[in-house]
Amino acid sequence: MPPLQVRQASLLSQLFDLWFPATADGPAASELDVIPFVLDRLASPWGAGLDRYLGEPFEPETAGFVRQGRESPAQVIADGLGIVETFLAEHGVPAVSDLDQPLRQRLVEGLRAGALGHGSAEFFWTARQLLLEGLFGLPGSGPPRPGALWLSSSSKREG
Amino acid sequence: MTESFDAIVAGYGWAGALVADQLAGAGYSVLVLERGEATPPSASGWYDREPERDGRRWRWQRTARDTVTLRHTPARRALPLRTLEVFGSGEGTGGSGVLWGGTSTRFHPDAFRPATVHGGRVREPANFDLLDWAVGYDQLEPYYARFEGILGVGGEPDPHPFAGWRSGPLPCAPPKDDDGLRLVRSAAAELGYHPHTVPAALLDADHVNTLGVGRSPDPLRGTSIATPLNTVHPHAERTGRVTIRTGAKVRRVTHDGGHARGILYSTPAGDRSAAAEVVVLATWTLQNTRLLLLSGIGEPYDHEAGTGVVGRGYAGHLSIPTTGYFDRQLSLPRAQASIGFVDSEPAGDSVGGAFHMTPSLGPLDPWESLTVPSETPAWGAGWKDALVARHGTKLSDVAISEALPSPRRFLDLDPRYVDADGDPLLRITFDWTENERRLVDRHGAVSRRVLAAAGASLMETTAPAFPYDVTRYQNTHLVGGARLGDDPGHSVVDPWLRSWQLRNVWVVGASAFPSASAPPPTLTAGALALRAADDIVAYLSGRPR
Predict the structure, then answer these.
(1) Size of interface A-B (CB pairs under 8 A)
(2) Which of A75, A142, B69, B110 has the most CB atoms around it within 10 Å of its CB?
(3) Do A107 and A19 touch, CB atoms closer than 8 A?
(4) Contact A136/B392, CB-based, under 8 Å?
(5) If you average pLDDT over residues B287-306, what whole number do you get?
């Protein structure tokens, strides 16, 4: 079973394009092949949470400590997209791109601060990490991703 | 039937590979038990472009099976590190030796006398647990030289003022400075420091080491890096006396009557055992200590009573990175190298100097280019524009300073959490102290001064979070827990890394360090491993020292 429904994948792609939009410097996240990469990651053992230590007991979160919750990264993303859907419904718009700038700000900063409900901050940081990996590749492994090639070609650095 | 060998070596990182090779070369049969998989060969030593397997970080310790717990103080309940972020121990043949950066700096002679050097300066002596090494620089120098020959260390021919004496020059020339490194070298010199190319197992030309094993630069990075697999392992294999068993996780040293009999280890097919005349633990700092505790070797440290030795003296490094942003593009380096300098001037109330190093900005890993000034928006067009504008305009000076041993920093077994075999996890009790706050202030300021003198227009120090934050990488320079010494009442192993309690067990690696000094630990850990191997050969040959 895919880690996300088509509707959820579309919503995640909209969010990624909000964070990494098309500009004069180059394309948006969705044009850099991010979503297929992220879906593969969420379907991997990492996405399923199988490379984490899952020994009992699970304790409440502690600041400055690695995540203690039982949920897999795929579940964190699915739950967080539910929060985003609720936000859109509350403001009567079908897509992230239909939000005006103040509401976009409220959505992203609300997620980041954990102010949009349980799991919203965890969703923000997990999704942001996935966006970076989708753009630039996993730190220190795998072939260069389209975002990395774009960044190198955009730079005026001498070889 | 239980298999039998002259020696069993647990772990196949630098320490395990060096000992296994030396014992096999002396004619002894060696069984190596490695919990991870066989790492594929890489002539250049770089693995960063290996396809990923099973999710992220496949060469790091698999926390799903085995991890550690951590608490900041003894009064707190420890929580498991469900993923490893703050440090990254290796797994598989080559161990952390296929993850390191190649820095191969010797410790200063004074580093072996921390109690003597620092003892009179500490403001609150009860907060420190300083122990002189019982091995001095002079005794270790021949082993430093041997390991440098195996690594093929490149560096400048003349030692800087903070280097100890040498019996011979470094075996190789260093890579040439690139644009950024020239700027830092010049700036540090202007400010009165003694900048030098950091000795490193990084070479920009083909090289054959003292064991007759060759390696070649990676065409994209322009350098090769020494790993156990392209320096020691081919030599060990040629002896035909080393059996490497992967997927074999050591659970206990079996012993009776004051003598080790062998090893109990787990495999996917169940538990197995093997017998040997000699057992060598070379499973990195944390696992070495844990195996001693699980096996009942040595008296566990009791921080309240101040008794016991196993788990005592856990220490390490404090990494303080400062990024300097320049108003122009720096040219791409053609090879990997670092410029370093030492700042050992006593300052205020802080105890401990720092080893500063600025590495080449790698051309291959875009993550190295994602750092942007802290005031940059975290998302949107502003963030994206900054990524482009700042790409290739940054240098980072990392000050590595010493987190000195303290009675409040120690290792023991966790009472609640267990690994996949049902064995208790190791519990770390650790937090930063006021001394480390002072070191951050001092050495961050030094880095900013140097980068400003190099021409950076904006400097930002990323201070480690207080209390100790395990969500961000710090370093993997963890030491202690099975400290060496000349008194069984204060140490776990003798100056040859031989267990005081079981005289046919050696505990090899940075677990034996009584303190961390400032340079990265690998060169010193390898030198101690070669010295321990000499001791083991003497024992097996019936000619103990």
Answers:
(1) 141
(2) B69
(3) no
(4) no
(5) 97
Provide the residue range defining the domain that includes A127.
6-158
Residue A78 domain flag: yes
Q: Are strands B224-225 and B424-429 parallel, antiparallel or unpaired?
A: unpaired
Show the tokens assigned to B17.
Answer: 């590979």
B341 touches B331 (CB < 8 A) = no
Structure tokens at B73: 């103080």
Closest residue on chain A to B365 (Cα): A140
CB contact under 8 A, B470 and A159: no
The two three-digit tokens of residue B11, written as one number: 């772990």
Could you count the other beta carbons within 10 Å of the beta carbon of residue B317? 24
CB burial class (10 A; 0-12, 13-18, 19+) of residue B298?
buried
Q: What is the DSSP string of chain A?
A: --SS-HHHHHHHHHHHHHHS--BTTB--GGGGTHHHHHHHHHHSTTTTTTTS--PSPPPPP-TTS----S--HHHHHHHHHHHHHHHHHHTT-SSGGGS-HHHHHHHHHHHHTTTTSTTHHHHHHHHHHHHHHHHH-STT-SSPPHHHHHHHHHS----
Distance from CA of B96 to the nearest CA of A (A): 15
Domain count, chain A: 1
Instruction: Sort A6 into a burial class: Cβ within 10 Å, 0-12 / 13-18 / 19+.
Output: exposed
Q: Does residue B152 contact residue B102 with C-beta atoms inside 8 Å? A: no
Answer whether residue B366 shows pLDDT above 80. no
Interface test with A, best of B53, B82, B421 (most A CBs within 10 A): B82
Residue A81 in any domain: the answer is yes
Distance of CA A32 to the CA centre of its chain: 15
Q: Which residues of A touch B418 (CB under 8 A)?
A: 55
Strand partners, B499: B493
Taking the C-alpha atoms of residue A97 and residue A28, their distance in angstroms, rounded to an integer, is 13
Structure tokens, B468: 């100790």
- Residue-wise pLDDT for A50-88, tens only, equals 889 999 999 987 777 878 888 999 999 999 999 999 999
Q: Answer whether residue A41 is part of any domain.
A: yes
Indicate the Cα dihedral angle B30, B31, B34, B37, nearest 10°: 100
Task: Give the list of residues 6+ apart from residue A30 with CB closer than 8 angstroms, or none.
Answer: A13, A16, A17
A1 in a structural domain: no
Question: How far is residue A140 from each of residues A145, B82, B185, B191, B203, measured CA to CA in Å?
Answer: 12, 21, 27, 35, 20
Could you give phi then psi for residue B200, rounded to 5 degrees? -150, 155
Question: What is the C-alpha to C-alpha distance for residues B89 and B13, in angstroms, rounded to an integer?
Answer: 10
Higher local confidence (pLDDT), B160 or B355 = B355
- How far is Cα A39 from Cα B56, in angstroms, rounded to an integer? 14
Q: Does the pTM exceed 0.90?
A: yes
Q: How far is A154 from chain B (nearest CA, A)?
A: 6
Q: Which residues of A touch B332 (CB under 8 A)?
A: 157-159
Q: How far apart are CA B39 and CA B544, in angstroms?
A: 36
pLDDT at position B56, please?
47
For the segment B112-154, what is each residue's pLDDT rounded down to a tens digit? 999 998 877 777 778 889 999 999 999 999 999 999 999 999 9
Give the tokens for residue B67. Answer: 């991890």
Question: Could you give the angle at which helices A6-19 and A73-90 cross, rounded to 10 degrees?
Answer: 80
Q: Any idea what DSSP says for residue B256?
A: E
